Amino acid sequence: MVQHLLARKGAARVAAIPPEVLEALNDGLLPTVCLTEFLAVDLARLARGVAARIGLDGEAELLADTLAMLPAIKPMKRHALVARALYEMAQPRADRDAIAHALATHPSDIARCWAAQWVQFAAMPLEDKLRSVRRFAADAHFGVREIAWMAVRDEVAGDIDVAVRLLQPWVRDADENIRRFASEATRPRGVWCAQVEALKAEPWRALPLLEPLKADPSRYVQNSVANWLNDASKSQPRWVEALAARWSREAPGPATAYIAKRAVRTLKQAPIRP
Q: Distance of CA 21 to CAs 1, 17, 159, 181, 207, Å?
């Protein structure tokens, strides 16, 4: 039983992770609680165990070949390779839907991240991908939620008007995680994902998503919207400045004030020239 480990605080160093915790993480019995734990997991051991648990062959040649490649791959890119191997192993199976469900409901957040990445590999239109990724956008684990929006980022960037239309109901959802997903998935810039060139040039095209969030009560959503606008300020500074001012007039409350202040933080460092 690992219930007593669920409320733990994450270690600051890999060496400080208790052996009991590391064993449970490697066996897929626990979700990680911090980046240190995420990076400490024995990915090969976890992948083989997860494969066996969801009904795949943990010793399959495809998986073994993939795991042998991992040491030569950057840490954050290894997961996509593992996810792809599991996806390809499951596709020919008649019970692939049951396998996908088992992966999507696995106790390990890393396994659920792999399940979210399956959406990325599937040949489906954006509407279907959004339907499939929604459960991961609402996941209890922050890491799974990040992978969820990354899984549809290329399609969002490729047709922003369709994405904005499809995501409009999401920004009015009762779940703050769903509302944040719509903001994060369309942010103009990103470090680990494709840039949305259309929104860097014309951020106003996403106003149907941003306007309903201008006074959102969730700090989680507020930070995302502020970051969205801060992204846009690097290419359309005057528009962001004007929008922040308008929102402050129209919704003069603490939520909007927080968003507006953070939205222009880059502009405050380098003011717009007249």
A: 12, 7, 43, 30, 45
Instruction: Please give the structure tokens belonging to residue 256.
Output: 């909007």
Burial of 257 (0-12, 13-18, 19+ CB in 10 A): middle
How far is 263 from 274, CA to CA, in rounded Å?
A: 20
What is the C-alpha separation between 131 and 105, in angstroms, rounded? Answer: 16
For 221-261, the pLDDT digits (tens) are 999 999 999 999 999 999 999 999 999 999 999 999 999 99
Helices 176-185 + 160-167 axis angle, to 10? 170
SS (H, E, C) the chain: CCHHHCCCCCCCCHHHCCHHHHHHHHCCCCCCCCHHHHHHCCHHHHHHHHHHHCCCCCCCHHHHHHHHHHHHCCHHHHHHHHHHHHHHHHCCCCCHHHHHHHHHCCCCHHHHHHHHHHHHHCCCCHHHHHHHHHHHHCCCCHHHHHHHHHCCHHHHHHCHHHHHHHHCCHHHCCCHHHHHHHHHHCCCCCCCCCCCHHHHHCHHHHHHHHHHHCCCCCHHHHHHHHHHHHHHHCCCHHHHHHHHHHHHHHCCCHHHHHHHHHHCHHHHHCCCCC
Does the pLDDT value for residue 274 go beyond 60? no
Band (pLDDT 50/70/90 cuts) for residue 272 is: low
How far is 49 from 270, CA to CA, in rounded Å? 51
